[in-house]
Amino acid sequence: MSVLRDPLLWLIALFIALLVWLPYSGALFASLFPQLERPLYQQDSFIQLAWSHVSLVGISSLLAVLIGVGAGILVTRRAGHAFRSLVETLVAAGQTFPPVAVLAIAVPVMGFGAQPAIIALLLYGILPILQGTLAGIERVPASVREIAEGAGMSPLQRLLKVELPLAAPVILAGIRTSVIINIGTAAIASTVGAKTLGSPVIIGLSGFNTAYVIQGAMLVALLAIITDRLFERVLQRLQTA
């Protein structure tokens, strides 16, 4: 019965219930917004939008993890230390470049759809992961590294068996921040034809339809909260392991 008291379980159940219930909620939104001719978003299935949204965030976040963690490891090695300032500057520039501007540049080259959105989310998501990787590896005590070296471990063994396991909570915290940011940012991908939970929001804003905006924003916010709670669980397990 303790499982039923888990807030995360109830949040997931609520999210799924909303996805299933919203297509049948026309009467409720019609009563809440009587001035609107079409108060319920019906262009796409909410389940399909949620799946597309999660897929978009998942692909871009995976690429961001590979690049961010890889770059963080590279510049903390002796051979790559000279490139640290350059890497941090380039990644920070990607974070400060507005995603809308990235979409505007990428669409003429890549066309409408998910691809330009993935590029925008990738550029926007690398910085927290890189910072988490750098902070995590740097906080590994020098004495621990010396012990590992004295035990005859190679540089690769020290990285995989000592540094990364000890740095994992901080790295994961950076990944957590990146993913949460991208869940919200992915909503604007609908401006270039990608199907996301931001579609009702974008259409609602352009058509002055507050009901659409509420329907999309509610699902995006709930998805972000669920994801954040999931990461918190994983972090707790890492820290107690």
How would you explain this protein's 3D organization?
There is one protein chain. The protein is mostly helical and 241 residues long. It has one domain (52-240): MetI-like fold (Orthogonal Bundle), CATH 1.10.3720. It has ten helices and no strands. The chain has helices spanning 7-21, 26-32, 46-75, 84-96, 99-110, 114-138, 142-150, 155-185, 199-206, 210-240. Helix 4 packs across helix 6. The protein is elongated.
Number of strands: 0
Task: Label the overall shape.
Answer: elongated
Question: CATH superfamily membership, which one?
Answer: MetI-like
The N- to C-terminal Cα distance equals 25 Å
Strand residue percentage: under 5%
State the secondary-structure class.
Answer: mainly alpha
- The whole-angstrom Rg is 21 Å
Per the CATH scheme, the topology name is MetI-like fold
- SSE string, helices as H and strands as E: HHHHHHHHHH
What is the name of the CATH class?
A: Mainly Alpha
The average pLDDT is: 88
Tally of distinct domains: 1
How many helical stretches? 10
Query: Which percent bin holds the helix content?
Result: over 70%
Largest sheet: none
Low-confidence stretches: none
The CATH architecture assignment turns out to be Orthogonal Bundle
